[in-house]
């Protein structure tokens, strides 16, 4: 009896060790026959819904490539910034490709895939009536922003605009249209996506250079080392082949300096 208890305790302790789940996550996906990936659905063109409700975009395309590699079906789960890491930790998704900026505190919660697959910058969507060429010209101006964006304070301190924050990305856009601010401070890629839409491309522009480049990270649950290695190899292959640049062009995004730089560095490697 004592030996049984000891053996059970050892098994329980082994299961609790970091990395214990790493050995079987890919097996679970293959056994299930489906890869479950968390993506955004409010971030055109990286993840959004078409008129039929299907989730499409650059990151769903990446997820499809992973499912193809594994030989399984793909299930996309809509996530938001507030729940994407928790979904991963809870096992609701196997992989997260959801415009997540790489930050030290996030690396304590999820296992980040390297090399980092993308990089964004900070920019501002401005009314065409606003003629500026330098960030310093925004000093004292009212900008709408998203509550919790890590760069709000830095931009306000460095360049001097007054930032009025709202939850999410739709409320600040509405406030901009209502004239409560002269521009929307947010991720450059999101703004680039908005400018593909009829509602925004005629009366708004993005005349300033992007600042505060911040890489984006895909992630798996902590300890999923086998899956992390597979994703790392796939990311290198995408950079080597120029696949990410091709996806940007497919979805109407001007290739970022980061994706073009990664293509040049990995091409021929």
TrEMBL record:
Residues 34-255 form the Solute-binding protein family 3/N-terminal domain. It comes from the Bacteria. InterPro entries: Bact_solute-bind_prot3, Solute-binding_3/MltF_N. Keywords: Signal, Transport. Residues 1-23 form the signal peptide. Gene3D superfamilies: Periplasmic binding protein-like II. Coiled coil: none annotated. GO terms for biological process: amino acid transport. It holds the Pfam family SBP_bac_3. GO terms for cellular component: extracellular region; outer membrane-bounded periplasmic space. Transmembrane segments: none annotated. Belongs to the bacterial solute-binding protein 3 family. This is Amino acid ABC transporter substrate-binding protein (PAAT family). It comes from Stella humosa.
